[in-house]
Design brief:
The chain is α+β, with helices and mostly antiparallel strands. It contains 7 helices and 9 strands. It has a 7-stranded mixed beta sheet, sandwiched between helices. A two-stranded antiparallel ribbon has the order 5-6. The chain is globular and about 50 Å long.
Length: about 210
């Protein structure tokens, strides 16, 4: 399966899971010095190979008014690839649990071993920035080097990966963990993994 085929399948899965509605969300992959990002207005559950448009990675993005044009989130994707040189795939969507947790203004902490292995000790949360804005891209540039994903305040999630499968699992671990954290806080039973536990998980399982 090609990376495009895998992203098309992922777009269908994201819509089926309710992690994106309408024309929300966008997907991209990196190929050399270019990225290919879903076009503006594309429906993730109906993607075709023609919906992925090329954009140079190392040139400031110049928005075109002539359709088809790349997603309005192109500057954010550019910033993410430059901040994470190993990234080959980016997924941006709008998981309800992750958006709800990001409204607390707190990073999403590791509460399970799997989250730890895929994402580390925490996923940082940004405040709200206008979608598609340079301010959002700049915030991603500052934040993403420390973690392969970031919560976008009142907006959604951006996840990177060296392959579609890894980005997919990172996304689902984020949404699952956000749901766990919201329920635990509501129940008054709050206990993230502790630093020594995180270190032990990484030491024992991190290379597998």
């Amino acid at each position: 399966m090609t990376v495009v085929d895998a992203l098309i399948a992922l777009g269908q899965e994201l819509a089926a899971r309710g992690l994106v509605l309408g024309s929300g969300g966008n997907l991209s992959y990196r190929d050399g010095d270019a990225m290919f990002i879903t076009r503006s207005g594309a429906l993730l559950h109906q993607l075709t190979p023609d919906d992925f448009l090329p954009v140079p990675l190392h040139q400031p993005y110049q928005r075109s008014e002539a359709p088809p044009r790349p997603s309005t989130e192109t500057p954010m994707h550019q910033a993410a690839y430059l901040a994470r040189p190993e990234a080959r795939v980016i997924v941006h969507c709008h998981p309800v649990n992750a958006i709800a947790w990001a409204m607390t203004g707190e990073s999403l902490p590791a509460v399970t071993p799997d989250f730890t292995l895929y994402l580390g000790a925490q996923v940082p949360a940004l405040p709200y920035f206008l979608p598609g804005s340079q301010a959002l891209a700049d915030a991603v540039t500052r934040t993403l080097p420390d973690c392969p994903a970031v919560l976008l305040g009142n907006h959604g999630v951006l996840v990177t990966g060296d392959a579609v499968d890894r980005a997919r699992l990172r996304l689902f671990h984020i949404d699952e963990t956000a749901a766990i954290c919201l329920k635990a806080r509501a129940a008054g039973a709050w206990r993230p993994l502790q630093p020594h536990e995180i270190a032990e998980i990484i030491a024992v399982y991190g290379k597998k």
